Amino acid sequence: DLGGKFDKSFNEAAFNGAERWAKETGGTYKELEMQDEAQREQALRRLAESGANPVVMTGFAFGDVLNKVAPDFPNTKFAIVDMVVEQPNVKSVVFNEHEGSYLVGMMAALASKTGTVGFIGGMDIPLIRKFGCGYAQGVKAVNPDAKVVINMTGTTPAAWNDPVKGAELAKGQKAQGADVIYAAAGGTGVGVLQAAADEGILSIGVDSNQNYLHPGKVLTSMLKRVDNAVYEAFKEGENLTPGINVMGLANDGVGYAMDENNASLVTPEMQAKVDEAAAKIKSGEIVVHDYMSDNTCPAATF
Amino acid sequence: MDRLPRWADVALVPFVSLTLAALISALVIIAIGQDPWEAIKVMVQGSVMNAYGWGYTLYYATSFMFTGLAVTVAFHAGLFNIGGEGQAQLGGLGVALVCLFLPWPHWTLALLGASLGAALFGAAWAAIPAYLQAKRGSHIVITTIMFNYIAASLMIFMLVDVLRPPGKMDPATANFPPETHLPSFNEIPGLNLVFTSGVPANVTFFIALAMAVVVWLLLWRTRLGYQIRAFGKSEPAARYAGINPTRIIMITMLISGGLAGLMAINNVMGEAERLLGNSASGAGFIGIAVALMGRNHPVGVVLAALLFGFLFQGGAELGLWTKIPIELRTVVQGLVILFTGALDMMVRMLLTRIFALFRTRKLEAA
Amino acid sequence: MANQSGAEAAYAIELKGISKAFGPVQANKDINIAVPKGTIHGIIGENGAGKSTLMSILYGFYKADAGQIFVNGQLTPIPDSQSAIRAGIGMVFQHFKLVQNFTVLENIILGAEEGQMLNTSLTKARKELERLARDYDLEVDPDALIEDLSVGHQQRVEILKALYRQADILILDEPTGVLTPDEADHLFRILKGLKEQGKTVILITHKLREIMEATDNVSVMRRGTMVATVKTAETSPEQLAELMVGRKVLLEVDKGTARPGEVVLKVEDLRVRDEHKVERLKGISFEIRAGEILGIAGVAGNGQSELLAALGGMQAATGTATLKGAPLPLSGAGSDGQSRRRSGIAHVPEDRHHHGLILDFTAWENVAFGYFNDPRYQKNALFMDNDAIRADTERKMAKFDVRPPIPTLAAKSFSGGNQQKIVVAREMEQNPALLLIGQPTRGVDIGAIEFIHKQIIALRDAGAAILLVSVELDEIMSLSDRIAVMFDGRIMGFRDPEKTDERELGLLMAGVTGKGEAA
Amino acid sequence: MDYATLLQLLDSTLRLATPLLLACLAGLYSERSGVFDIGLEGKMLVAAMCAGAVAFYTGSAWVGALAGIAGSLVFALIHGVTSITFRGNQLIAGVALNFLASGMTVLVAQYLFGQGGRTPPLEGAARFNPIDLPLSETLKGVPVIGPFYHEVISGHSILVYAAFAIVALTWWVLYRTRYGLRLRAVGENPAAVDTAGVSVPALRFSAVMVTGVLCGLAGAYMATALQAGFGKEMTAGRGYIALAALIFAKWRPIQAMWACLLFGFFQALATRPDIVEGIVQVKIPVSFIEALPYVLTVFVLAGFVGKAIPPRAGGEPYVKER
Ligand SMILES: Nc1ncnc2c1ncn2[C@@H]1O[C@H](COP(=O)(O)OP(=O)(O)OP(=O)(O)O)[C@@H](O)[C@H]1O
Ligand SMILES: Nc1ncnc2c1ncn2[C@@H]1O[C@H](COP(=O)(O)OP(=O)(O)OP(=O)(O)O)[C@@H](O)[C@H]1O
Ligand SMILES: [Mg+2]
Ligand SMILES: [Mg+2]
After folding, report:
1. pTM (2 decimals)?
2. Which CATH architecture is the domain B58-322 placed in?
């Protein structure tokens, strides 16, 4: 999406997925980055035109365009991440971000000393609120009277790529007492993590594992395996199975990242608690509310 | 410094400027470790060697004709309208409102209505800077720049808080009703023999050409055009001749803004069929380059627009098939403006020298 | 250094073979001139003769195409003003070179500052200024803003600028054009003072009177060439005039007596304020009859331009005016140039380059200038009939002998005189009820002058009322049937050209009314 | 809105106003000399890219800043040659250079780092890190001013303080030195300067170069202080806001500082719509806050808030021979 391929987050995840496939199968693929909204359709058509199959796109913004384009290329297969498009030749992959966010929410609450944690979203859309809502639920689950400061970066796609604003928001949240900040904001997150590191507080990455960006300063990352989705789609190739496919905790679509970079920050107890919750969610014992199901959130107000 | 022959002034100067721009672009490509020749091939291949490419080249060209003409008209009144971008975006808003909230039986009528909406909104956005220039002498260049940004904010507001359909995530209007769908080249009988697959180029292209003719007639065949050009050459003289400055500035800018706004029927109504954020995507600024290259003459503008259409489609292809980033377009655009616009004098001096040289040669020979 | 030991006094300035061309204009052709030290040397010539160009070269403002400059005997190349200043040359330009929103002091030190800091320079300049003011009685308030000063005082600042830079040689380009007579007299006293201090003064003008009363020697320029240098004492105005224009000047245009008809234009209490709200016309009243030429005499800048502008619909005014009995709006609706033309007023503006013509337009486009709404020039409701205009242009060019007679040629490629002919032809051929005509022969050669004068007379005899404004007294005297003299935005009085002389008019122009008390 | 929040707002105001201020002062020199410059945006962008890239290679923010200045100077030079030497249209030149910058920066950054037109994130000495002013900790306790000093005044990168120092410096140069006098004069009436024996082109070139240096600092600040690295289009129209501020301040240094602080404050507010909402009790679309600087500037241009009269000779190339 507009965050840019090297947003270290959402799109980079997709890119890595593609890379992995390319390495393993030696196949080749074309990647295209959008400069602006108007370009999407051209890019899509051009790829289909050029015989690429399947065509994989990440980001809800492709939804409408794909609805227009897919019928024109009946024997090309499309896969779209983060959006449901009902077309006979389209595979839609959506994630249970709220489940993953729930886990890192718990993590945040456990790590927080001030009892105040922050959430910085990218573009203010239901999808991102879904992240925030899951996160808030996770926080409250650990510490019912914890405070969750929530900010959105903006209302346009530009909000995916505005590190300056991200940084300012992070500094603002620190001023309000937050000592752990979860950034679900694509490229903007880079600024958030940076600011958090500068200010000496913890941050939580999103989509890809962003722990390495500031070793010892990023508590963890909410993994959204876009890379897997893209990888799978490419692997299936022409015979990609259309339809909706939901990736959640259960099928390792989402999760949280542990590695040497944040080992020092996450105590075994914390990890134990979180893993326990994860198990419960898988088993359905805990049901994390999905904001997009009814556009309301029990744990937070937007 | 003696003057250049007319043909040189009309044809040679822009050609040299363009060549210089091209040369430097080539150097840039080499500098970033790519092969300019390869780049040219890709651009040509993807933009003019097949119907599909033409479909896009002409689509872009259409938009640039409108914005180029907009700048041209203002130029002849001595006004530098940098506000094409904002005016085009407002035009888009006009189109969207017309298409979404009025029932249209047939696309021809819808086109009429949309054109009206586009022109009106574009003109309206040019009206305030025009008024401030005419009545309060506020420099129109600065005000139009400011209005570009104000327009951007306004559009975000409209798309996010007003026109975005409930439940939709991206800031865009709903899709326009099918009745408002403009025939694109692959749907126009006759043309569809050439354009087999779906292309964005649509009937608006012909409107753009018509507009070029209209602008030419306006400027060189009507009293208004005469007054516009006279005013542009010398304001005190215009006042002596009884030409009302306020009137000319207002009318000219309204026409200019209207033309810029009209571009929206091409990209918003003809292509996207809904209003997206940043819909003009820079065409307003490219209009400046197009007008400068086209020597502020409709014919020149049409040609320059085609060239930039090629540049744009070709650039997109570069971004797709080569390691050369799509931003190369912006670089070339900048260079063209620099050489045809700002370094005009340099090119002329250069040529006059050369011509003088030849003259002396002739004399010696004789 | 002020030694004037007779004939072979050392020369302050010697110019040898100076030439300068502006594109097609050969402004200076192989000029030679020698200026003795400690004298006031006059340079005289028609508009466009090349005087300013020559002096700008001497001051290093323009670069000569050829020629040498000697200062105090030795060869001194002057590539830029800096070196001119170093050579002790100071210049007061025809159009002042002052920074309007700076104080007098700031303008004076500009470019001649002492070191990097301002304060030091300013304090020093202030002292120096007081001294100069005393020595040459050049009083100006050092802290006044230039834009608040009168032209006369601005000129003093220019002179002070030169003196502050220790100029020994002072050039003044048409210094009196913008001055009232007593301001001019004051200036000449100053110049005499400078001369006594041993400084050399070069005075450019085309006013014979000033040459005669102020200079020791005088050089005459014509069409870019130096035609003669004579001792003022040994010459006469008549001789100079002859040298200037290349042949005997006929100060009288043979014109039949006027047969004035009914009143065409009647103006009462006409007032005009400029953008700074300064009143430029202070209640003017007069009338012009059909078949009569009313000449407006006066020093430039005493309201003549505003008068033409107001009547021509270029500037809003107050008061009342009637044209053939019908009210003529002076502001708001119906007071613009178009309405004026419709009501039968034609206007040959004072400045053809800034008002009369669009230099980049072709001749034929210029012939339609101001008359683009004329039914004869329309093809239909929508379009103009360019062919008709071209045809009409050929007619006018033939009748007024415009050279070359090519309608498609750009106005800027015609010579000044021919440019003027195009304007005159356009306006006169409308056979207007009232013709406003300003400086009809400025920068125009003698042949064209006679032609244009004849046309004016012809139009008068055809029954038009004509308002003639000119700074050339001879022109006023020879063309007018009645003369009104303007001073400081007022009409000082009306005179009959038969019953008055240059002296009387000169006094009126100086604001001294018949009864002798100053206005 | 409580005091803490206010402090936080002012704190980020200072951070966000700095690039505006540097660019604004940059424009002041050029325009005072009679060369209009709408190419501030482009110069900043180039500077940001050069600074980001070089700081990454050398690991030194200072070297980065120098590189930024160099990059910006190149563009300033082009602008000078175009509009002073070849008497081209200054506005068109500015527009052209902005496009050139916007494209070039991405091309080069992509070529160097292959990260979609970004430079890699900078760490440690490769950035101008916040510096705590003396006593900021000890004074923290002092009511009202203590926190103000600690939160707002202290804890910014050196460039922030430099920017404000340059305001004073510019004022002094402009009104107290010979160079300033000539600079103001050449913008008002070049012929006066010329006949006074001072070279107009030299003077204007010097001014345009100063503009280049200051834009360089502005860009360097963007990439190595405000952010950690260069990103495509990262100046995001700040060059134009600076231009607006310059007009708003009627081309005067001290007023320019206030204008930039005001516009910086708007930007800070725009990041926190929640605060605005808290105060006015109704939901204000962020886009409105973002548009405020431009709207205000239009008002100033319209002469509703005192007329903004640009340097008289501004925009026209100086030609002796008409
Ligand atoms: N800068 C210039 N560019 C082009 N032509 C010029 C320029 N200056 C003067 N000329 C032309 O050169 C000729 C001489 O002009 P100049 O000003 O020297 O005459 P002048 O004797 O000073 O006339 P006046 O008495 O009106 O001042 C005229 O034809 C004028 O049009
Ligand atoms: N100010 C000026 N700028 C540019 N070109 C000029 C200027 N004045 C005159 N010219 C050109 O110089 C040539 C001669 O002009 P000028 O007015 O000196 O002619 P002239 O010798 O006075 O002829 P005429 O007797 O017809 O006036 C013409 O071709 C005219 O276009
Ligand atoms: Mg002169
Ligand atoms: Mg002449």
Report:
1. 0.87
2. Orthogonal Bundle (1.10)
